[in-house]
Write a structure and sequence with these properties.
With 205 residues, this protein is of the alpha+beta class. 33% of the residues lie in helices and 9% in strands.
Length: 205
């Protein structure tokens, strides 16, 4: 059946790269309109080279179709770095500002590296973690597991009634002065893009 869906003209990227590479560059948003679900595993150097070679064309398509946001590779390689405190040190990461909410990223209280997806931590303390490290966890016989006691652990599980919230991608890009002229006009018509984003239990898994 015929449709009126507008399709972006086939670009050099689409014709030159395989589905897995397109999947990575466009966050599963095929310029032709259909999602690529293939997985493609590359070395770190290959990933960086792929992004560097195709960055301009990817961003052109992305900003035209998803203004006031950026694809995953941009967050990995191009996003401004900011000081981020971890359990053991302060490092530079590409993070969005946290606004409010209850929940602790794993890198603040466990032996986890600080890892982010689109500027938001991707590993969070679970209720199981909080129970175990505070001595609340019990085995099937009702006996405590481990030698931990209440107060040993400062990490908090995500509170679904007050989840961690972060500035939106649009707010991040605006704060860093990275919006294009077209995106600024688009944001003026769509102020809802500045609304903070909440982390859910599903996001944290």
């Amino acid at each position: 059946m015929a449709t009126n869906r507008k399709r972006t003209p086939r670009s050099r990227i689409v014709s030159a790269l395989n589905p897995g590479e397109i999947n990575f560059l466009y966050d599963r948003n095929d310029p032709l309109g259909d999602p690529w679900l293939d997985r493609h595993f590359m070395s770190k150097d290959e990933i960086k080279g792929l992004w560097t070679e195709n960055r301009d064309e990817v961003l052109k398509w992305w900003i035209e179709n998803k203004p006031c946001s950026r694809p995953g590779p941009w967050w990995i390689f191009d996003a401004p770095l900011e000081d981020t405190k971890t359990r053991f040190e302060v490092i530079k990461t590409q993070r969005r500002d946290r606004i409010s909410g209850v929940g602790t990223p794993c890198y603040l209280c466990l032996n986890y590296c600080a890892q982010f997806t689109l500027g938001i931590p991707n590993s969070w303390v679970s209720q199981r973690d909080a129970d175990y490290y505070n001595g609340r966890a019990k085995d099937i016989h009702g006996k405590p597991i481990g030698n931990n006691k209440e107060g040993d652990f400062e990490g908090l599980a995500i509170d679904p009634t007050d989840p961690p919230t972060f500035e939106s991608q649009a707010a991040y890009l605006k704060r860093h002065g990275l919006l294009t002229t077209e995106e600024k006009r688009h944001l003026g018509k769509h102020p809802e893009l500045l609304k903070p984003e909440a982390v859910t239990d599903e996001d944290a898994e």
